């Protein structure tokens, strides 16, 4: 990693991913799926965990203490199964005032399992302040 992470300091990394790379406008985050994420006897991982990984990567790509997610346009392309390793890569593709558009892709080996565009906002103060 090249930069210090300035956001989401207390996030649960086993549930949302471990940062592997961070630089201006780019991040890469890896997550090992677990049985706690599975929804059925086939060990299908709930999509919310994949979305959480993608969101975590987007927040780190923006990397501001007061970044929040405002909107998301996403596609779940392939199922993920318990025990698989998935990696999200997020890239800020547009910055305009407080709004930043982040492209995110989640891969499992050579398969793209999720992709989307997340709209993030950098606030002057914490959303709960």
What does this structure look like?
With 129 residues, the protein is an alpha+beta fold. It has helices at residues 13-16, 47-62; strands at 18-23, 26-32, 67-76, 85-96, 99-108, 111-122. A six-stranded antiparallel sheet has the order 1-2-4-5-6-3. A hairpin with a 2-residue loop joins strand 4 and strand 5 (99-108). The radius of gyration is 14 Å and the shape is globular.
Q: Notable features of this structure?
A:
129 residues; alpha+beta; six-stranded antiparallel beta sheet; 2 helices; 6 strands; 16% helix; globular
List the helices and strands and how they pair.
Layout: H1 13-16, E1 18-23, E2 26-32, H2 47-62, E3 67-76, E4 85-96, E5 99-108, E6 111-122
Antiparallel strand pairs: 1-2, 2-4, 3-6, 4-5, 5-6
Could you provide a short overview of the structure?
The protein is an alpha+beta fold and 129 residues long.
- In helices, the fraction of residues equals 10-25%
Mean pLDDT metric: 96
Query: What overall geometry do the principal axes of the alpha carbons give?
Result: globular
Order of helices and strands: HEEHEEEE
Strand content: 35-45%
Strand segment count: 6
The value of Rg in angstroms is 14 Å
Structural class from helices and strands?
Answer: alpha+beta
Task: Please describe the biggest sheet, giving its number of strands, its sense, and whether it closes into a barrel.
Answer: 6 strands, antiparallel
Number of helices: 2
Low-confidence stretches: none
Tell me which oligomeric state these chains represent. single chain
**Straight-line N-to-C gap:** 30 Å
- The spatial strand order of the largest sheet comes to 1-2-4-5-6-3
